[in-house]
Each structure stands twice: as C-alpha cells, then as structure tokens.
C-alpha cells in the first residue's frame, strides 16, 4: 500500500511541476519552520527529537528550492522571544542549529548568511554561524539566510541604530538626517540588505500569524499557511504552495 501511495504522490508532483512556469517562481521564499516541538510531543519524543527531525527537513527543502532555481531562502529557526525559554530547551536547539549550519556550509551548495541579533546568542553558536558565512562567501549558489535570535522589531531597531551611527560618524546632525531619511535608507541597514524582499512566506504547523517574521520585508509578500508540522512538510506541500503563489495576482499593496 505504501508503494501505491508513493507512486500516486510522484505522479501528482510531476503534474504540479509541469504546471509551473519560470516567470511565476518566487525569487525569495521565507519559511517559518514551525511545529518541531509539537511533532516530537505527538510521537512521545523529547523536544530535541523534533529539532533534529526539523533540521533533517531543511537540507531536503533547500534541494527542492534549487530545483526551481529560487535565489534566496530565509529560514526562521529561533526568535528572540524563544531565547527566554528554559536552558534545558534552548541548549539542545543551539547544538542542532550549530551542527546544521556546519553541515550546510560543508555542502558548499549554498551561501550561508546569518540574520539576527547574534550578540544575544552563546559565543560558540555565534562563531559557528559566522564561520559558516565566511566559508561559503564565494559559493555561487542560492543564498540561505539562517534567522537565529531573530525578531522583526529588533531588526528594525538595529537598522535605525546602525543608520544613526553611520551618519553620526559622518558628522550629520539629527536635523539634517530627519530631512532626507526615507524607507530606502532604513532598508540599507536591515539584516537582509541587498537582497530582494520575500515574494512568498510559508508557515507550517497550522498557525496563521506572522509573529514579526521579516516585518519590514514582507510588506508585499504573499503568505501560505500549511497544516503540516515542519518535519512532516513534503515536497507535495511545497509544490502546492508554489502553485498557489503562481495563481495569485500580486497587487503590491494596491
């Protein structure tokens, strides 16, 4: 019976692929990899089991994005709010994230770019993230933003702080800055500066809220909410999200 279902899904996925056209593929996809702990609980496992299953799904997911020639993927793995959880929950997740970025960097298929308040992380974790970024800086493949210790409000505060420091160093007064500052000046100081904004944001686990993910960048994004927990997210689910996106008429706020 399992082989019959597998064959059926293969046929269905090929049909979905045939209906996709290159001009309707998102350039940048943001993913809220949600539901790892609930997945673990459902199987009677510790949260760490869910984190490991979720990490295994990520490399598979990036392969799907490569097939469609997506240029940028942003994976939200840990929010600033999550850092307030007990140490016995956070420490195993940190180990999983460290090993994940090491593995992705060693593949040399993708350019790793940490986004988040790295100063809020344990020093060892921040070093692993920075090392992965440095070691893949010359890779020509897809950019993979690893959002760890990420919060949309914190990103905006950091962007404004960076902008103020830059202009203070140039001798610009507050009055002068207030005269010419616009949205582009702030965008130049975001964690994702220089990248296209996400066309599509996917959240798994059935939650239908953004929780501050890419708060600035997602102003004109299309959203897709999936019931599957992240470890159970299938290529079929992914292709359905892309099909749904491709069928929409984007209005960009109009």
Folded structure, characterized:
This protein has a domain at about 25-150 and about 200-245: 3-Layer(aba) Sandwich (Undecaprenyl pyrophosphate synthetase). It is built from 9 helices and 6 strands. The radius of gyration is 19 Å and the shape is globular. It is of the alpha/beta class and about 250 residues long. It has helices at about 1-20, 35-40, 45-65, 85-105, 125-135, 150-170, 175-180, 185, 235-245; strands at about 30, 70-80, 110-115, 145-150, 200-205, 220-225. Helix 1 (about 1-20) packs parallel to helix 9 and helix 3 runs parallel beside helix 4 (about 85-105). The protein has a 6-stranded parallel sheet with strand order 3-4-2-1-5-6, sandwiched between helices. Strand 3, helix 5 (about 125-135) and strand 4 form a beta-alpha-beta unit.
Structural class: alpha/beta
Radius of gyration: 19 Å
**Averaged pLDDT, please?**
93
Contiguous runs where pLDDT drops below 50 for at least 5 residues: none
Which CATH architecture of the domain at 26-150 and 198-246 would you pick? 3-Layer(aba) Sandwich
Give the CATH class of the domain at 26-150 and 198-246: Alpha Beta
Helical coverage, percent range: 40-55%
Summarize this structure briefly.
By secondary structure, the protein is of the alpha/beta class.
How is the topology of this model organized?
Blueprint: H1 2-18, E1 28-32, H2 36-42, H3 47-67, E2 72-79, H4 87-107, E3 111-115, H5 123-135, E4 143-150, H6 152-169, H7 174-180, H8 183-187, E5 200-203, E6 222-225, H9 235-247
Keywords:
254 residues, alpha/beta, 48% helix, 9 helices, globular, 6-stranded parallel beta sheet, Undecaprenyl pyrophosphate synthetase, 6 strands
């Amino acid at each position: 019976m399992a082989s019959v279902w597998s064959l059926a899904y293969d046929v269905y996925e090929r049909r979905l692929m045939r209906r996709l056209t290159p001009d309707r593929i998102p350039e940048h996809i943001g993913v809220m990899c949600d539901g790892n702990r609930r997945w673990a609980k459902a199987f009677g496992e510790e949260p760490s089991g869910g984190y490991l299953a979720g990490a295994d799904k990520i490399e598979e997911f990036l392969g799907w994005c490569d097939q469609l020639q997506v240029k940028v993927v942003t994976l939200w793995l840990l929010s600033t709010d999550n850092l307030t959880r007990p140490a016995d929950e956070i420490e195993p997740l940190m180990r999983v994230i460290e090993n994940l970025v090491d593995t992705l960097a060693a593949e040399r298929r993708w350019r790793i770019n940490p986004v988040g308040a790295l100063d809020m992380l344990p020093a060892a974790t921040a070093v692993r993230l920075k090392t992965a970024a440095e070691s893949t800086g010359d890779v020509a493949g897809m950019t993979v933003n690893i959002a760890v210790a990420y919060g949309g409000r914190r990103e905006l505060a950091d962007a404004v702080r960076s902008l103020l420091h830059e202009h203070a160093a140039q001798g610009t007064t507050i009055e002068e800055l207030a005269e010419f500052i616009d949205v582009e000046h702030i965008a130049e100081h975001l964690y994702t500066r220089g990248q296209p904004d996400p066309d599509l944001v996917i959240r798994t686990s059935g939650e239908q809220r953004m929780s501050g993910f890419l708060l600035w960048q997602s102003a004109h994004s299309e959203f897709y909410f999936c019931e599957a927990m992240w470890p159970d997210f299938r290529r079929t689910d992914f292709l359905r999200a892309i099909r749904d996106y491709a069928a929409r008429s984007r209005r960009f706020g109009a």
